[in-house]
Amino acid sequence: MATITASMVGELRAKTDAPMMECKKALTEADGNMDKAEELLRIKLGNKAGKASGRITAEGVVTAFVDGDAGAMIEINCETDFVTKNDSFLALANAAAMLVAKNNPADIAALGALAYEQDGFGPTLEDVRKGLIGKIGENMSFRRFKRFAGNGKLASYLHGTRIGVMVEFEGDDTSAKDVAMHIAAMKPVAISASDVPADLIEKERAVAAGKAEEDRKVAEAAGKQPQPADIVAKRIEGGVQKYLKEVSLHNQPFVKNDKQTVEQMLKAASTSIKGFTLYVVGEGIEKKVDDFAAEVAAQVAAAKAAA
Questions:
Q1: CA-CA distance, 237 to 53, in Å (whole number)?
Q2: What is the model's pLDDT at position 305?
Q3: Residue 96 shares a structural domain with residue 162
Q4: Which of 12, 70, 194, 259 is the most buried (most CB within 10 A)?
Q5: Residue 282 falls within a domain, yes or no?
Q6: In a domain, 235, yes or no
Q7: Is residue 289 left, alpha or beta, with left meaning phi > 0 and alpha meaning psi from -120 to 50?
Q8: Where are the alpha helices (DSSP H) in the chain?
Q9: 48 lies in the same domain as 65
Q10: pLDDT per residue over 157-174, tens digit each?
Q11: Same domain, 197 and 88
Q12: Which pLDDT does position 307 carry in this prediction?
């Protein structure tokens, strides 16, 4: 039986970034053979990846890449905010954005099949993702991406790592960058009121109608005469128009100068916005809420049952 020294453990940890005890166990099992121990760790890391793959990934980062008239934005998720500061995780996210821009994959599966090596893992991006799950000990996944090309120039803005915006435009670069920052702050849903999706408009109309109905009931309960139907209809439509102004980019007050709208600012700068995409990390993902007390109680109950 070979003697496992601290320097051997340190060397294996440097090569794999696996926990110290895992490195020592692998070296012991491999009788001191470094290559075999590394192979054993790769297998164990893969097993870790399998165990982690079912866990919810509601944290993460948005990254962007622009190269001339082609660019990409991607959201990659993980389980905790701690991992979003990990250099390997960030390198994976940045590489994925670049690969989308340069290769135009059809979907997440096609993206994962692209050639990429990092941290000793590969030869594909998906292999690196699985390897880093084991190395870091958390599940991570590519959630969504979009590639941009052929619709004008590109301007991107990242607010930290949680909000990303890509703007397709013609005109002044600085004004386009300002618009990207505005979008990150104000989160419009469309460029103009006429572009707002019909389902969102109908939802807002239903809300306004519900409010009008509540007002009618209150008036009747108080013995007052309800407003005429035509007045109610105008109120509802007024609420919808107010909503459209609030969520359409052109109609929003510009964040750097609220005395003018974004449309007015763009016109003064001879700039036009062709399209934009806004990603917010974890948007729409249901996060797991841990109940520590309940978890401890469950473990105690399980221990008593086994006794």
A1: 48
A2: 58
A3: yes
A4: 12
A5: no
A6: yes
A7: beta
A8: 6-16, 20-29, 34-52, 87-103, 108-112, 125-136, 173-186, 198-221, 229-247, 262-268, 292-306
A9: no
A10: 999 999 999 999 999 999
A11: no
A12: 52
DSSP conformational letter for 124: B
Distances (CA, A) of 152 to 148, 166, 176, 271, 272: 9, 12, 11, 11, 10
Cβ count near 3 (within 10 Å): 7
Examine the pLDDT at 28 and tell me if it is beyond 50.
Answer: yes
From the list 238, 44, 32, the residue with the least C-alpha distance to 131 is 44
The residue written with tokens 């389980």 in the block is 79
Contact 292, 88 (CB under 8 A): no
Which is more confident, 117 or 17? 117
What pLDDT does 23 receive? 81
Residue 145, domain extent: 59-186
Q: What is the CATH number of the domain that holds 24?
A: 1.10.8.10
Tokens of 71: 């660019």
Q: Which of 165, 186, 207 is the last residue of a domain?
A: 186
Q: pLDDT tens, 265-305? A: 999 999 999 999 999 998 866 554 444 455 445 555 655 55
Query: Does residue 210 belong to any structural domain of this protein?
Result: yes
Q: What is the pLDDT of residue 292?
A: 41
Q: Are residues 70 and 177 in the same domain?
A: yes
Q: Are residues 43 and 65 in the same domain?
A: no
Q: How many domains does the chain have?
A: 3
Q: What would the mean pLDDT of 259-263 be, rounded to a whole number?
A: 96
Residues 166 and 255 grouped into a single domain: no
Shared domain for 43 and 84, answered yes or no, is: no
Q: Could you read off the pLDDT of 31-42 as tens digits, one per residue?
A: 999 888 887 776
For the whole model, what pTM was predicted? 0.73
User: Does 144 fall in a domain?
Assistant: yes
Cβ–Cβ < 8 Å for 136, 88: yes
In contact, 194 and 218? CB cutoff 8 Å? no
Calculate the average pLDDT of the chain: 86
CB 245 within 8 Å of CB 251: yes
